[in-house]
Specification:
Helix content: 25-40%
Mean pLDDT: 92
Strand order of the largest sheet: 3-2-1-4-5-6
Radius of gyration: 17 Å
CATH class of the domain at 3-133 and 205-226 and 233-259: Alpha Beta
Strand content: 15-25%
CATH topology of the domain at 3-133 and 205-226 and 233-259: UDP-N-acetylmuramoyl-L-alanine:D-glutamate ligase
Order of helices and strands: EHEEHEHEHEHHEEEHHH
Oligomer: single chain
Low-confidence stretches: none
Shape: globular
Distance between the termini: 27 Å
Number of strands: 9
Structural class: alpha/beta
């Protein structure tokens, strides 16, 4: 069985972060492991408190995994502090030669709140992007990274090229924040690939970015090419959103196990 590691924050409501990553890994038949960077008090209505894990404990978590287990893929999510980013980059450079690293640059919340201070944003771009096989920003995150206003597909292409120049080997720019149907674009430094999906009428989209990046990581670990891994991940998250769960009073989570539950004859 392939072994995949998520380095991210914990979501106490289970819809995003480490919890979403591990669910996604399990749904893809890979063994999930975790390095927790922060503990959040959150639910479907918002984030109410964050406790960052110290950089030395983060380093010890990474060391404990890599000194014992062969890792087939790494997904990096919420990393909010400069020291956190620096220690992750240093430890991965030391331990991990595989280069199957997916960076989900969690910079802006759905409400538009900046989750990283400017220094941390710069450090993430400087230290983590060069390690990434693929980086997966949404449009608000890409706007932060490039200082560009992104309103059209052409703007997305220009932003993807700019982010590629920052050091990522491939850039998947997600188009869910544009109007009409969603188009994600993948840029490899030479050409674009386009991934289309119809917009789904639901408010329950908590954790979609975490889930998509974890699905890509899982498929890469399973041996699929990047284009095929993105295509399969896009199909997976679309199904998860179509059958999202109305849990809580706010923005509910996606259904990570819908296809498996359906095959097993279980109700949603």
């Amino acid at each position: 069985m392939k072994k995949v590691l998520t380095i991210a924050g914990s979501d106490s409501s289970g819809g995003a972060g480490i919890q979403a990553d591990l669910k996604t890994f399990s749904a893809h038949g890979v063994f999930g492991m975790s390095v927790i960077t922060a503990v959040t008090a959150q639910n479907t209505q918002g984030v109410f408190a964050v406790q960052d894990i110290t950089s030395d404990v983060i380093a010890k978590q990474i060391e404990a995994i890599f000194e014992d287990i062969d890792v087939d893929g790494v997904k990096i999510g919420m990393v909010s502090q400069v020291q956190t980013i620096e220690v992750i980059a240093e430890r991965l450079r030391h331990y991990y030669r595989n280069q199957t690293i997916v960076v989900d640059p969690v910079m802006v919340s759905k409400s538009g709140y900046h989750l990283l201070n400017p220094e941390a944003e710069v450090t993430l771009i400087r230290d983590l992007l060069p390690l990434a096989m693929v980086v997966t920003p949404n449009i608000p995150e890409a706007e932060v990274m490039t200082k560009m206003s992104i309103r059209t597909l052409q703007h997305m292409e220009e932003a993807a090229k700019a982010i590629y120049q920052m050091g990522a080997k491939n850039v998947l720019l997600k188009g869910g924040h544009l109007e009409k149907d969603s188009t994600d674009i993948l840029y490899d430094g030479r050409e674009f690939s386009y991934f289309f999906s119809s917009r789904i009428a639901t408010k329950n989209t908590h954790g979609t970015g975490c889930t998509l990046s974890s699905a890509i990581t899982s498929n890469l670990a399973l041996g699929y090419s990047l284009n095929e891994a993105v295509s399969r991940a896009k199909e997976y998250i679309t199904t998860a959103i179509q059958h999202s769960l109305s849990i809580g009073k706010g923005v509910g989570p996606t259904h990570h196990f819908y296809s498996l539950y359906k095959k097993a004859g279980l109700s949603e």
